[in-house]
């Protein structure tokens, strides 16, 4: 790709970014409830007094929202939004620091060395230059200038490791501070017990109570046995749908006829009043639910949530083997009540095992399936290959503007559109694996999405673009550095365009929440609205963190290969830092807290990116006939892995559980609190399955009544 094609892509995306920012700035200043994309937008002083009278100032874009997004400190974010939000913001901070340093070194040192690598070239007619002129490929084989790249790799690795260590230390201390400052939470006092043995003559509940009163008599408080509620939840879902229809009919928001037929598809049977029909249907469903609830006592599952009087007591129970048989009385820390994923409590061991096998096969199949858009993207990026596939397009492709748009913008756009459906698929696959909490599902989906993105968006594109016929070389590990060294630099132009298309435009559409906004508009257009309660969107950590880490991998691997990508990445991380602070403050709301458990994924991905850069460097220096530099690079991945092991032992244990020192100190502080008896009373019922809650009476229902049997009640 020549530089002019890249400039075309950058220009298109800059225009889109400017359009989104302008629209957002204008809409933030409008009166009324036009900010449908931001349900948590808080009106700042005086704005609530605005009237609907015309005001030219409202139509002028401003950057006031940027200032408001940057005002809250890290402590404000921690106290108001939680540790997960702080970790997410600190990932941006970490990337900005890393790539600020990388951009200075890359643009002012490595890029001039690359550009003048073959011979002295003047900086004239740059738009017609190939991007290879700015990469390490332009440096002569055996040139002493390659030692500058060698030194930059060592310095860059040291800086990244130092910054990673600093973030580990900072977030570990904030996690402890957040624990000390927070109020008592049910999951801190509760463990999940599974594999409860069946005792003849005793129910599961009686067995659990007897065991924990015997062996944890000083700390045991209460327990809640899990029940088999699959059929009851199906009835709940049906009742919820009927209730919403009834509310829309009574409130007049649903344009339906006053009468309908009660037969098949509403086309047969006798005519009945619509409101009366839905009320009777709702009453019947509630009667069925009450009957099912009365039978739940005999459908216990050998699992229970056991609560203790202290955090230390719960920690002891969750970390020590409870019974002689290690397959019985299995304990693990309980998730937050609203975080519990109930469906798989009733699944047998065989069903979970089969589900995991099916998920693995589906995941591999999805990776293989996405080779199709990868091949298409590479064909668009290569005009000669495209002319071979479609010879009748040769005359059109010879037009300069068309060829620049196709090679510079279209490939990354098509690939970005093709992977939009992948995050929901990963969440679906993870939900089938038997996890007992939504946060575990999201963490698993995050890891799957990261693996998918790294393989399909990096390795598959790199290899299919220039070395697909040599994939079998990977069967011999000693050839991996040489293969990557030959293939990776050739795809620098595509990844620069990908950062601009997927990164810049993606962030700009995120602040506007374009897809949900369009979906909301289409649903209103067809008269299909949900109930009047507006659901605040959940924070999409599992979707955004893999994207961040993938761009970090691109910047790390291309740091010394093609440093021209670094400024584009730095702009992306700076935009993301501002935009996601705004989104976390005004749009998203966390439904549960993981305690910063996404950070270990960031650590592992950063170490992998560094090691991948080192492996490519070994191959590059070998191809460039500088064997000494190649040999001296080999210790670098070893030192990086040793650093990773040290960080894991030093810091990552704190992200799994809290130390005894913290637990005991917090328990002692609770003893001085006056309202702990109130908390214990709530703790006893905190882990009841929402399906066993009492249903509401349908008679006399009105549009102001709260929704029936909310599934998020806990």
UniProtKB/TrEMBL annotation:
It comes from the Eukaryota. This is CSC1-like protein HYP1. Belongs to the CSC1 (TC 1.A.17) family. GO terms for molecular function: calcium-activated cation channel activity. It is a multi-pass membrane protein. Keywords: Calcium, Ion channel, Ion transport, Membrane, Transmembrane, Transmembrane helix, Transport. Residues 357-621 form the CSC1/OSCA1-like 7TM region domain. Residues 189-343 form the CSC1/OSCA1-like cytosolic domain. Signal peptide: none annotated. InterPro entries: Csc1-like, CSC1/OSCA1-like_7TM, CSC1/OSCA1-like_cyt, CSC1/OSCA1-like_N. Residues 693-714 are annotated as: Disordered. It is found in: Membrane. Residues 5-167 form the CSC1/OSCA1-like N-terminal transmembrane domain. The gene is LOC108863248.
């Amino acid at each position: 790709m020549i530089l002019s094609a890249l400039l075309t892509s950058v220009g298109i995306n800059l225009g889109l970014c400017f359009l989104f920012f302008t629209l957002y700035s204008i809409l933030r200043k409008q009166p009324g409830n036009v900010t449908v994309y931001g349900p948590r937008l808080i009106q700042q002083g005086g704005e609530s007094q605005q009237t609907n009278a015309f005001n030219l100032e409202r139509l002028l874009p401003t950057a006031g929202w940027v200032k408001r997004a940057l005002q809250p400190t890290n402590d404000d974010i921690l106290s108001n939004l939680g540790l997960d939000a702080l970790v997410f913001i600190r990932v941006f901070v970490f990337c900005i620091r890393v790539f600020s340093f990388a951009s200075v070194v890359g643009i002012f040192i490595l890029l001039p060395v690359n550009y003048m690598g073959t011979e002295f070239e003047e900086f004239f007619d740059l738009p017609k230059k190939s991007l290879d002129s700015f990469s390490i490929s332009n440096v002569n084989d055996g040139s002493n200038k390659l030692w500058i790249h060698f030194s930059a790799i060592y310095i860059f690795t040291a800086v990244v490791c130092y910054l990673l260590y600093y973030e580990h230390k900072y977030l570990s201390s904030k996690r402890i501070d957040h624990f000390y400052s927070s109020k008592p939470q049910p999951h801190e006092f509760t463990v999940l017990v599974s594999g409860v043995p069946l005792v003849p003559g005793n129910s599961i509940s009686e067995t659990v109570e007897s065991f924990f009163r015997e062996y944890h008599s000083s700390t045991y408080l209460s327990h809640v046995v899990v029940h088999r509620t699959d059929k009851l939840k199906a009835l709940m879902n049906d009742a919820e749908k009927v209730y919403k229809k009834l509310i829309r009919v009574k409130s007049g928001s649903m344009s339906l006829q006053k009468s309908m037929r009660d037969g098949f598809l509403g086309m047969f049977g006798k005519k009945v009043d619509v409101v009366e029909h839905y009320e009777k249907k709702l009453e019947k469903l509630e009667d069925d639910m009450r009957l099912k609830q009365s039978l739940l006592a005999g459908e216990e599952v050998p699992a229970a949530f056991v609560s203790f009087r202290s955090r230390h007591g719960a920690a002891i129970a969750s970390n020590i083997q409870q019974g002689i048989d290690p397959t019985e009385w299995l304990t693990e820390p309980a998730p937050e009540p609203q975080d519990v994923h109930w469906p798989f409590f009733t699944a047998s061991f065989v069903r979970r095992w089969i589900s995991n096998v099916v998920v693995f096969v589906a995941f591999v199949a999805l990776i293989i399936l996405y080779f199709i858009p990868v091949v298409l993207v590479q064909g668009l990026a290569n005009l000669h290959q495209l002319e071979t596939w479609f010879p009748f397009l040769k005359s059109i492709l010879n037009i300069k503007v068309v060829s620049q748009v196709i090679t510079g913008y279209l490939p990354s756009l098509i690939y970005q559109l093709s992977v939009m459906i992948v995050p929901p698929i990963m969440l679906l696959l993870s939900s089938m694996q038997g996890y007992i909490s939504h946060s575990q599902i999201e963490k698993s989906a995050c890891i799957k999405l990261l693996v998918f993105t790294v393989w399909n968006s990096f390795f598959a594109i790199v290899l299919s673009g220039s070395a697909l016929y040599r994939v079998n070389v990977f069967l011999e590990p000693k050839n991996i550095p040489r293969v990557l060294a030959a293939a990776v630099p050739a795809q620098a132009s595509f990844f620069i365009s990908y950062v601009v298309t997927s990164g810049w435009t993606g962030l700009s559409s995120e602040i506007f929440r374009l897809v949900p906004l369009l979906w909301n508009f289409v649903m209103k257009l067809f008269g299909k609205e949900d109930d009047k309660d507006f659901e605040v969107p959940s924070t999409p950590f599992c979707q955004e963190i893999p994207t961040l880490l993938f761009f970090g991998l691109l910047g790390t691997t291309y740091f010394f290969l093609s440093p021209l990508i670094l400024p584009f990445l730095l702009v992306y991380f700076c935009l993301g830092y501002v935009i996601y602070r705004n989104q976390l403050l005004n749009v998203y709301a966390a439904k549960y807290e993981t305690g910063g458990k996404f950070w270990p994924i960031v650590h592992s991905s950063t170490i992998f990116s560094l090691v991948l850069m080192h492996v490519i460097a070994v191959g590059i220096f070998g191809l460039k006939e500088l064997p000494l530099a190649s040999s001296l690079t080999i210790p670098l991945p070893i030192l990086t892995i040793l650093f990773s092991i040290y960080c894991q032992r030093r810091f990552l244990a704190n992200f799994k559980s809290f130390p005894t020192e913290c637990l005991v100190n917090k328990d002692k502080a609770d003893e001085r609190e006056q309202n702990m008896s109130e908390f214990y009373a709530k703790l006893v019922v905190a882990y009841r399955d929402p399906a066993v809650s009492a249903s509401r009476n349908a008679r006399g229902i009105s549009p102001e009544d709260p929704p029936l049997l909310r599934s998020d009640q806990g």
